């Protein structure tokens, strides 16, 4: 894994990566949905998008969508995912060919929550909410997706 | 994907939601996390005892980038967390930290120690600082004695 040094990222983690946290995320998703329902789980992801990633949201609000590409590059790189990023002026596409988070959970527990990828879909939606941009997440298959940020029509 | 690097900030949001639901809801979640952690710990702790615990937390020390001192003795394992990366990230956060964030740690470790027959003394010291001291004893009486010396003793679901 490389350690780039992007200066515009609010959270710029270094050092080792503890992939087992994805297993705890999977457990949490199952627990919250079973006990409180899917809307509650989505509301928590919305809080993550709006509050934890407030800085990315602020950049997107002001038109700097490249910060999201920088975030994707840094963290998917750290997790050893197979991915590519295509950057145009008003559109950035992240294509994840192999999501190591999904793969790791599958290895740990066998069955990944059917709502595991909601963490991506709903957090992305919340980050873009109220900005001139939208972030769409398309699930392409198991452990594979496309995430697109572009100007709203 | 919420990066594994940011899991603790997600965790923090889950805790804040559960705290609003009530203490019992928080405890049920800690127990669920504890069950999740059994996959990584239970066999190791049962087979190797304190040495297995040392192995587990030595692995965590490296993988989670902890500033952690581990001291293994015949009848005790001591973990001195000088800088906890988990609380550090929650404090370095654009979202508001949950005031009792530290409580989850004893919340999942305690039930596992009860299952394997060891005795946990968890001193958080101060919930606003990323440091703590954890002592795990073979002997219950020594654990009870040690509890008299702690600054902020943590409990867990089912603690006797």
Strand count of chain A = 4
- CATH hierarchy, class of chain A: Alpha Beta
The share of residues in extended strands of chain B comes to 15-25%
Biggest β-sheet description of chain A:
4 strands, antiparallel
Note poorly predicted spans of chain B. none
Description:
With 153 residues, chain A is α+β, with helices and mostly antiparallel strands. Chain A is 48% helix and 20% strand. Chain A contains six helices and four strands. Chain A has a four-stranded antiparallel β-sheet. In chain A, strand 1 (82-87) and strand 2 form a beta hairpin. Chain A is globular, with a radius of gyration of 15 Å. The relative contact order of chain A is 0.19. Chain B is α+β, with helices and mostly antiparallel strands and 160 residues long. Chain B has a single domain, classed as Muramoyl-pentapeptide Carboxypeptidase, domain 2. In chain B, 52% of the residues lie in helices and 16% in strands. Chain B has six helices and four strands. Chain B has a four-stranded antiparallel β-sheet, with helices on both faces. The N and C termini of chain B lie far apart (39 Å). The A-B interface holds A 10-11, 13-25, 27-28, 31-32, 35-36, 40, 43-44, 47-48, 51-55, 75-76, 78-79, 96, 99, 101, 108-109, 119-120, 123 and B 1-11, 13-14, 16-17, 21, 25, 28-29, 32-33, 35-36, 39-40, 60, 62-65, 89, 92-96.
Short description:
Chain A is of the alpha+beta class. Chain A is built from six helices and four strands; from the N terminus they run H-H-H-H-E-E-H-H-E-E.
């Amino acid at each position: 894994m490389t350690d780039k040094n992007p200066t515009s990222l609010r959270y710029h983690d270094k050092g080792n990566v503890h992939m087992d946290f994805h297993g705890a995320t999977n457990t949490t998703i199952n627990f919250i949905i079973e006990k409180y329902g899917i809307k509650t789980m989505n509301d928590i992801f919305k809080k993550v998008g709006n509050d934890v990633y407030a800085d990315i949201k602020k950049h997107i609000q002001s038109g700097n969508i490249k910060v999201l590409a920088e975030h994707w590059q840094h963290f998917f790189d750290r997790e050893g995912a197979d991915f590519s990023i295509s950057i145009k002026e008003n559109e950035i596409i992240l294509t994840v060919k192999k999501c190591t988070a999904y793969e790791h959970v599958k290895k740990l527990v066998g069955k990944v929550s059917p709502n595991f990828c909601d963490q991506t879909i709903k957090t992305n939606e919340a980050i873009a909410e109220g900005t001139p941009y939208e972030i769409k997440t398309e699930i392409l298959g198991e452990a594979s997706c496309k995430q697109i940020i572009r100007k709203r029509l | 994907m919420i990066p594994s690097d940011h899991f603790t900030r997600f965790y923090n949001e889950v805790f804040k939601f559960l705290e609003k639901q009530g203490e019992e809801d928080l405890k049920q979640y800690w127990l669920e996390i504890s069950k999740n952690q059994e996959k990584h710990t239970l066999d190791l702790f049962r087979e190797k005892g304190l040495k297995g615990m040392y192995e587990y937390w030595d692995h965590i020390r490296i993988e989670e980038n902890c500033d952690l001192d581990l001291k293994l003795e015949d009848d005790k394992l001591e973990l001195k967390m000088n800088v906890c990366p988990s609380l550090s990230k929650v404090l370095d956060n654009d979202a508001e930290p949950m005031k009792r964030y530290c409580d989850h740690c004893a919340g999942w470790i305690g039930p596992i120690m009860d299952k394997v027959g060891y005795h946990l003394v968890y001193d958080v010291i101060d919930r606003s600082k990323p440091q703590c001291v954890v002592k795990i004893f073979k002997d219950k009486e020594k654990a009870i004695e040690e509890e008299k010396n702690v600054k902020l003793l943590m409990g867990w679901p089912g603690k006797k």
